[in-house]
Specification:
The chain is of the alpha/beta class. The protein folds into two domains: about 325 residues, Methylmalonyl-CoA mutase (TIM Barrel, Alpha-Beta Barrel); about 100 residues, no CATH class. Helices cover about 50% and strands about 10% of the residues. The chain has an eight-stranded parallel beta sheet. α9 runs parallel beside α10, α11 packs across α15 and α13 crosses α14.
Length: about 450
């Protein structure tokens, strides 16, 4: 028995798992309908796939949510996991699920997949016969991912950086790398049975004034860590920045460099997809303004040539959207995308050159670290502050990088902290800013955060 299989049996021996059948799960995945695989859909679609967010505690409510989404002609269904499961607190999730079912009140902020189990969840997933994307935010997702894959969920979001630094304060980063290595191995193993399991990194990070260089570096590194374990289908992603041209530049550089480094590390046979998140910051309370914001981000998704767009609703500022509001957002985005075929290509050579240089400068520092494995090189880079996420709560995050917006709403690096950027690259960032002594920096930061309000 392999070391991986021994670890899998130990994890799936959890008291919250009802007799996991390895052979049956493998046979299910081998014979699963190809329509369940988003990797298959990416290969066979010439339009942007539309995926909403959404999740409820009970089976019945998720089923009804999916019915609404299917009426709206959704391309990819979401399954958002509850916070207790994200923290591996399956006991609390079980109690809250029971209360939710008994009282018809949502006592959880998502679907406790481990407690529902893969046998019942699979019935729902195969019924709708549409790719499901797992959205969760879990540093230790080993058990969750096993149940997800056994259920027929063949796209797994997250990674050791993107699902740790923006979400957690104390969870050990080295453990997150090792736990996600397990996830990649299991996804790679199942990828040999049918269509590939697609892995997707979480590009929005803390969703607050994230400079493109940080987003792109982390996307490329999580992609390489995944492919290193045998994953053949990977989605890099980023979210709307608040600047149309910065989004276009980010997408052009990300697509170019993701392919470059995948090939450089020997992963020429891997497929790379681009995912665009609609605005992840604070939404306006005016619902008409929200509609305008969503429409604008839909136009940008078409401009950047995304393979998938992840949607928001006009109710974003008011709480959890109803299933009807969520489905309406999907329908409206699909309608808008249908009008945006044949858009001209846009670029900004100066901005693209600078962003390319910045990304390669940081990656070079990471790769030149003396550690013997890629994950240790990345771990060391984060400890040194060569990679950091602005506004991350995690204790290992350096928290020295300061970002503000320039007059065109581009996110610029005001203080680079320990980022290994060249003098030329950093001078370019600062040259775009006009912040004098009379300008209160904190006011500029607050204004930049609330740009869409």
């Amino acid at each position: 028995m392999s070391l991986l299989q021994r670890e899998r049996e130990a994890i799936l021996g959890s008291e919250y798992v009802d007799n996991f059948d390895f052979d049956e799960v493998e046979a299910f995945i081998k014979g699963a309908n190809k329509e369940l695989f988003i990797s298959h859909k990416f290969k066979n679609s010439d339009s942007i796939l539309v995926q909403p967010r959404g999740g409820f505690p009970t089976y019945d409510k998720v089923f009804k949510l999916y019915e609404e989404f299917k009426k709206a002609d959704v391309d990819v269904l979401p399954l958002t996991i509850d916070s207790n499961t994200r923290l591996n607190d399956y006991a609390s999730a079980k109690k809250m699920l029971k209360l939710s079912e008994e009282n018809d009140v949502d006592m959880l902020n998502g679907y406790p997949l481990v407690n529902h189990g893969y046998r019942s969840t699979r019935k729902m997933i195969t019924h709708f016969n549409t790719p499901i994307s797992l959205r969760h935010g879990t540093p230790d997702a080993r058990l969750l991912i096993e149940i997800a894959l056994a259920s027929g969920i063949f796209e797994i979001e997250g990674g050791p950086i993107t699902y740790l630094l923006p979400y957690s304060k104390n969870f050990p980063l080295d453990k997150a790398f090792l736990y996600w290595k397990y996830v990649e191995k299991v996804c790679a193993k199942y990828s040999t049975l049918n269509e590939p399991i697609n892995r997707e990194s979480f590009g929005p990070l803390s969703a607050t004034l994230q400079p493109p260089v940080i987003v792109l570096v982390i996307q490329i590194l999580e992609m390489l860590l995944s492919m290193e374990e045998g994953v053949k289908s990977f989605s890099v992603s980023f979210s709307q920045t608040g600047s149309m041209i910065q989004d276009v530049v980010s997408s052009n550089v990300l697509k170019k460099l993701a392919r470059k480094y995948a090939d450089k590390f020997g992963h020429e046979d891997a497929t790379i997809n681009l995912v665009y998140h609609q605005w992840m910051g604070a939404f306006p309370r005016n619902k008409e303004h929200s509609d305008s914001l969503i429409n604008t981000s839909t136009v940008i998704a078409a401009m950047v040539g995304a393979n998938k767009i992840i949607t928001k609703t006009r109710d974003e500022a008011h709480g959890i959207p109803t299933k009807e509001s969520n489905a309406m957002a999907v329908s409206n985005v699909k309608y808008t995308l249908n009008m945006l075929k044949g858009l001209p290509k846009i670029n900004d050579e100066e901005e693209e050159e600078n962003l390319t240089n910045e990304v390669e400068e940081i990656l070079e520092a990471v790769f030149n670290d003396s550690a013997d494995t890629l994950w240790r090189k990345v771990f060391n880079a984060i400890k040194k502050g060569h990679i950091e996420i602005p506004f991350s709560p995690h204790i290992i995050n350096n928290n020295e990088v300061i970002t503000v917006r320039d007059k065109n709403s581009n996110i610029r690096i005001y203080d680079k902290g320990n980022l290994p950027l060249s003098d030329k690259s950093f001078a370019y960032e600062r040259s775009k800013l006009n912040i004098g002594k009379e300008t209160a920096l904190v006011d500029e930061i607050i204004k930049g955060i609330g740009i869409m309000l």
